[in-house]
Each structure stands twice: as structure tokens, then as C-alpha cells.
Amino acid sequence: MDDFSKIAIAAEEVVSFLKSKTNYKEVYQNILFQRVVERASRERGIAVTTEEIEAEAERQRREKRLEKASDTLAWLADELISFDDWEVGIRNQLLAQKLAVALFSEEVEKFFWQNSLGFEQVILYQLIVSNEKLAQELYYQIEEGEISFYYAAHLYDIDDSRRRRCGYEGKIERGVIPTDIAAIVFSKPTQELIGPLKTEQGYHLLMVEGLLPAELTTQKYEEILNNMFQQWLLAAVNTLVSSSQISPVRD
């Protein structure tokens, strides 16, 4: 890789470029997020140890397959950052994670079970066509066993990717399906053909392969925790701006 670090770029040029690409607000906001994290962590006595930073650095090295110290240094040089810069980034990441857990770990499970209906899942197959008559014809052909749902989706679906998957949409949570369609999908027996249902996309034929109860997996726990933390960060930054403790972004 070329050594871009040999070419000096002034801080003002970086800021000007970010503004021209409309990325400046995002960077500015992330800096404010970090300020909020630092202050809230100090108030709660939350800190990150050297051992924790080293353990996370080692995990990232394994993930990136940086087996030797020279590999790590070469990667850092290619990213135009120093070892200290990297460790600061790791420390900030771990600090935010610790603060999120301190603030919301006890709320995640409560939120999940209060909203468990929305976390139920279906293993869903879907076929969408643009023509109502075709949708009706396919419905009757599938019902009569003249063609399988999967082959019909492979032949007729309006989406190339879904055609290749023979209509397979995967595991879908109730909460991400439009309410009126979810009410139908989650009330029907598995393997029963549903539709045609009309939306802005076209005419849908649906089939549920399986129903999955709500489960608070590690991934779902972290997703809910992160969403709560991000909402809290946004509210905290908005409070700072509105109370004039900092200046809003200006060009």
C-alpha cells in the first residue's frame, strides 16, 4: 500500500472535506457522544483497566489474523494511526459498553418480556408479483398441487434475489412485519398458503414454515441494550445543546 502519511493534511482541510461530504455533523455528534460517555462514567466510577484494553486488542488481532507484532504495526501504519491511537479507540469502546451495561442491563430483560409479542418470529417464504390476476392464478395452482410454492417463487417473483432463494425470507420478527399482515401471518397454521395480499410492492403470497417463540438470545440482549443506550446518548446530547452548555454545529 502507498504511504499516504507522507503527505501532510491540515486539520482545517479535514474539517472542510467532511462538511463538503455532509459527514461533519455525524463526526461532531460522535465526539459529543464520547464527551457524554466520559462524564457519565466518571460520575458512576466506571473505568477501563489496562488488562481489559490488552485483552480486547488481542481479540481484534486474532480477528484480523495479525499473528505477529510486525503484522499489527503494518496494519496500524496502513490505517494511518499509531498504537496509542488504537488503544484509545479500544478504551473508548469498552468504556461505552461498560456504561451501557451499568445504565440498562436490568432494563433489557424487563423490556423484552413486556414486548415479547413483537419478538416472536416466523420462518417465512414470500412470493410477490405485480399483477393481481397472476397472483390469483398462482394461488390456485399451488393449492391444487400443479406447482410448488418454491418453484412458483423461483419463476415469478418480481425480486431477482428472492427468486434465487425460491421465496425464502428467513426468520422474521413480528415487530418488523406490517401490523395487518403480521396479524394474518401469525394466526395461520404452518405450511398454509396465505394471500394474495395487496401492498405498495404488489400482490403477496406467503407461507410460514415455522413459528418461533420469543427468545432473549445474547444477540437480542445486546441489540436491545445498544438501542436503549443510543437513545439515551441522543437525549443526553440534545439536553447539552438545548441548555447551551455547548455550541451547536455551525458551518
From TrEMBL:
EC number: 5.2.1.8
Reactions accelerated catalytically: [protein]-peptidylproline (omega=180) = [protein]-peptidylproline (omega=0)
Pfam families noted in UniProt: Rotamase (PF00639)
Keyword Signal part of the UniProt annotation: yes
Keywords: Isomerase, Rotamase, Signal
One annotated GO molecular function: peptidyl-prolyl cis-trans isomerase activity
Annotated PpiC domain residues: 119-210
The name this protein goes by in its record: peptidylprolyl isomerase
Species this chain originates from: Scytonema hofmannii PCC 7110
Lineage: Bacteria, Bacillati, Cyanobacteriota, Cyanophyceae, Nostocales
